[in-house]
Amino acid sequence: MGFPFKPEAQETPILSQHFGNRDTISLEGWRNAGGYQGLEKALGMAPTEIVDVVKNSGLRGRGGAGFPTGVKWSFMKLDDGKPHYLCCNADESEPGTFKDREIMRWTPHALLEGCAIGAYAIGAEMVYIYIRGEFTEPLLRVREAVHEAYDAGILGPNAMGQGKRIDIVVHKGAGAYICGEETAMMNSIEGRRGNPRIKPPFPAVSGVFGKPTTINNVETLAAVPHIIVNGAEWYKSMSLSSPKSTGSKLFSVCGNIARPGNYEVVLGFPFKDFLYDLCGGPLPGRTFKAVIPGGVSVPIQTMDEAEATKMDYEGFVEQGSMLGSGGVIVYDDQQNMVKQIARIARFFAHESCAQCTQCREGTAWTTKIMERIRDGDGTAEDLDTLMSIADNMTGKTICVLSDSCATPVVSGINKFGSEFEALIKKTTFYPVTAAVA
Amino acid sequence: MATTVEPTAVTQLKTVTLTIEGRQVTVPEGTSILEAAKRVGVLIPHYCYHPALPAPGVCRMCLVEVEKAVKLAPSCVTAAAEGQVVHVHSEKSREARKGVLEMLLINHPLDCPICDQSGECELQDFTYMEGRKDSRLRDPKRFNPAEDFGGDVLYVTNRCILCTRCVRFMDDVAHDPVLNVSERGDRAVIGKFEGKDLTNMWSGNVVDLCPVGALLSKDFLNKTRAWEIDRAASICPGCTQGCNIMTETRDNMVVRLQPRPNAEVNDYFMCDYGRLNYRWMNRQDRVEVPMVRRADAGALAAADWEEALAVAATVLRGKRVFVAASPSLSNETLFLLSKLMKDSGGAGTFTVPTGPEFPLPGVEDLALRTDRAANVRGAELLGFTRVDSPLSGMADGDVLVVADTELDNVPSEQIARAAALVVIGTVLPECMRTAAVVLPVANFAEEEGTFTNLRGQVQRFTQARVAPGMSRPSWWVAGDVLSALGHNAQYFIASEVFSALASEHPEFSGMSYDTLGLRGLKTAGEQAHAHTAAGV
Amino acid sequence: MTEAVTRDNSSQHGVPYTPVFVGARRKELDELFTRYPTKMACILPALWMVQEEHGWVSDEGMAEVSDVLELTPAYVKGVVSFYTMYNRHPVGKYLIQACTTSPCNICGAEDVVRAFLEHTGCSDLGVTSPDGLYTVIEVECLGACGFATPVMINEGFVESVTPERVPEILAGLE
User: pTM for the full model?
Assistant: First the structure.
C-alpha cells in the first residue's frame, strides 16, 4: 500500500520512501537519510555532464507532457550571457493528482536539492518554486526548508561552498488551475494574469521575464538527485515495458477505491495489478466502472482498457488514454458518468483563462449542455452538438485546457453512450439529487 | 511610425516567398501570414489582431491551414516562412472559423437592429461571409449590464467578444492602463477600476478599434445607422498635427469624425479633442448672402455676387491691404489672399488659439498639439505673420480684410482704424458689422483644399457637406476678388489654385492633387531636412 | 463555482482602510523586491499580505498595491479577479472551502457541503452566517483527492471530511 499506508513489496519507493516520516522534513533528518549527496556530486560535475546523465537516464517530465527532461535542459544555451531561470511547477492542480503535495510535505529538501542541481545544470542562479496557494502545509514546509538551506549555506551566493550562486524563491499561487501550464505560470510569476502564452517563442528562448527559462515538475526535479547519485544506468534499468519510459513514477489514486493514496511503481507496471492488488480493488460490494488514469484532462478508460494497460507513457496511449500527471480517478458502479463528466466540464469552465474564444465560450457551453442532460432535459441532438463543440475546441487554442475539457466529453460519449441515452430517454438511470450549488 | 512593419529602405531585409491561396508573395522575414495575405489581396478574417497593436493571438479567428503543419495556424502570430503553402479558404480552416463564429455568437444578444455598430460590424460581416445560419444554443444566454466607462465611451458588455484590442491600446499605445480583463472563463469582461474613468485624451480610439458593438461613442449613440452615412476623406482641423480623418455626414450634417490611417501622420488614431470638435461645422447662424453697404442706405444690405465683388474691388483698389486670416484656412485660400496683400505692399497676420499638448506615447511624433489650428505652418510659409493681437502691424488707412476669423477680443476702435473693412467669412460677428462688404464663404467641411501640418506634410481634405445659401468656397471668393482687381485669377476648381501655388512657391514645387493623393507629401524644405537627418 | 459574496456584511464595508505596507510589512515587501527583477512580479505576494491583514482584498487594498508596485489600480484589479483565492468581499471569521470536483464529488463532497451549511447557519454558499463566524464556499480541486473530502478552513487543511465529522470540526475551531 502506498502513502498514507506502508509501501508494499511490489512498489519501488524512491521518492516516496520517506512519506509519513516526520524525521526527513528537517535538513538534519534529510542529511541523515543521505540527502544533498546528489547536489554535492553535481556541483563537482560540469553542467553539460549533468544534462547528459539526465538525458541518458531517460527521465521524462512528470507533470503531464512527458517531455525528456535532459533534452529540455539541453535547450538552454549556457554561454548566451543572459540570466537563466528555473521554475519549479508545484502548482499541482490537476484533479486526481496529489503526489507533489506529499513530496513537499515530507521531503521538501529533496525538491530543493533537485532544484539546485537543475539550476546549476541549465546555468540558472534563480529558481522560482511556484506552489499553489491552497497548499498551505507544503508551502510552510518548503519555505522552512529554504530557510534552513540558506542558513546552512546550501543555497545563496556560495552554494555548498562550491562558489556557485543558487537562489530559491517560493512563489505562492492564488487559485488558478491554468497556472500549472508552464507559460501561464511564467506570466503569473511576472505578476500578470495567468494567461498561457503563444509558443514560439519557447521558454528556453524567452521565458519568465523574457529570459531563457526551464520549467520542471516537482516530481521530475525530486528524481534528479537520485539519478545523479546512482547513475543513469540505474534509473534506466527501471522499466517494465517500453524502453522509452524509465524510472519510478508516483501515481495518486482516488475515487471509489479501497485504499486511495500515492503509489510509486516502476513504469510499465500492470495497471490491473495496480488497481486490484496495490490499491485493494473496489469498495466492498461494488465493481469498477471507469478509470481516468492521468488527471481529468485525459480520456476516460473503460475497465477493459484499464485492465489491459501497462502503466507507462506508451501503454496508456495504446489503451485509449494518457499517463498525464499520474492522477488515477476510479469510478465504480454507483456513479453516473454523465453527472461526473458534467462536473469535470464545470471545472474547466471555471478554470478557463478567457483568452481563446473556443475555450472561454466552449467550456461554459459544454457545461450548460452536460448539466442539462444530467438533469434529464437533454435531446439526441445535444450529443451531436457536444461532439461538434468538442471538435471546435480541440487543437485550435493557445494551450490545451480547451482540449482537456473536450476530452472527457468525447471519450464519455464514445465509451459510456448508454448512460447518456438513458438520461435523454428520461428513464432515470441515477437518482440525481438536487444540486447543492 | 513605430508600429508599421514596412521594410525600411536603408536596411537590407531578408525576405521569404510563400504561396497564399495560390498566389505567390514575397515579404520581409518576420511578417505574419495575415499581413502577407493582405499584400496579395486575401483577407483572413480576424478580431484580436490589429496592425497598430501587439498581436495576442487569442480570438482564434484567423486560423488557416498551412501545408505540412499538424495544427491550424493562427495567421496573425505565425511568421511567414519560405515555401509555405497557405490555404485560407480550405474546408478545414473555414470549419474552424465557423466554429469560432458560433462560439462568439452563442451569448451575443443578436441585437443588430438597435446596435450602433450594425453595418460596420466585423462580427456581422464575417458571420455573413462564413458563419452558421442558425444557432445551436438551447440554454439561456449570459447577461451582463452595460457600463459607462467615462469619457465618450460606453461598454455594452453583452456584445463584447473579448478581443482585448481596447485593453492593449490603453496599455501599449496610450500607456495609461485603465482598462483590464476582469474575471476569467466565460465570466470575463472588460473592466476598469471604480472611480478611474476612461478620461485619457486618446481613449475614443477604443471605440474605433472595437470590431463589434461593445464599445460605443456616447456622442454618436443612436444618432444614425452606418449605412445612412456619407463619408469624405479629410484632415482634422483641430490642431497642427493634421490627423487624417473621415468626415461623416448624414442629411448634410456632420455627425462623426473618425481617424483615417496614415502611417506618416497619425497611424490609426485621432484624439478626443479633434474627434468631438465638429459641431461648429453644422452652425446655423451663417452668412448666406453677400452684403454691401450702399451709399444711399446706412446698413449692410444683401447683394448679388457681382455687385459685392465690384464693391470689394472699389474698396481695395489702390490701397494697402492688411489681411487678418484664420490659420485654419486652406493653403489655396491663404495663397490667394497673400497675393492680395503682397501686391498692395500690405501685410498679413494670424493668431492661434492654444491649449496643452497631449502626446500619444506609443506612436512616435503624434500628439494633440498646443497650436489648435490646422494650417499654422501653411500660413507661415505663405507669408503670414503669427501675432498675439490680430491687428498688430496694421497701419492707419489700410484696408482690413478679415478672412474667416472672428477677431475675438479686438476692440472696435482698433478695427475702426482701418480705412475700410472687407469680411470674407462664414459668420458676421458684432464687431464686424461696420464692414463695407461681406463675402460669405464655405467652411472647412464645405470646401476642398490642402493643409500643411507642423512637419510640413501637405494633405488634402475634401468637401463633406453643402455650403449654405449663396456662400462659395473661400479660394473661389479670394480668386474672384483678385480677378476683380485685374489679376488673372479665374480658377474653377481647387486643384487649379493648388497648381498655381505649386508653380510659384518653391516649398510646394512639383506637387499637385494627383501626387498628393490622400496621404500627402512633405514640403521641399522638410524633404531636404529628412534626407539630411537620414544621412543620405 | 461560487465566490464569496456579501449580502449581510455591509457593516464591515464602513470600516476605514488601514494601509498595509508600513513598518514590518513594508520591510517584507522591500525584501521581496530584491528577489524579482521587476516590482510587478511582487503583485501576488503583495495581495496576499493585504488579505492576511484585512481578510479580504478591497478596492482600497488594490489601490494601495497599485501605489507600492507602480501599477494602475485597473491592472491590479484585473490580476485580483483572475485568482480565486483573493476574497473580493469580506468573509466570516472562518472561511470554509470544500472541494467538490469530480474525485471528491464521487466520495460524497456534496453531502459534506450540505452538512457545513446546516451546522454553520449559513443560508447559502458564499453568504456569511448571521453571527459573522462562517462563510462556506465550494472550490475546485484542492489537490488532496485521495483524502476526500478535503476542506480548507482559513489556512488550515482538514482531510477526509465526512458529514458526520462536521460538528466536531466546527467545535474544534473555537
Answer: 0.94
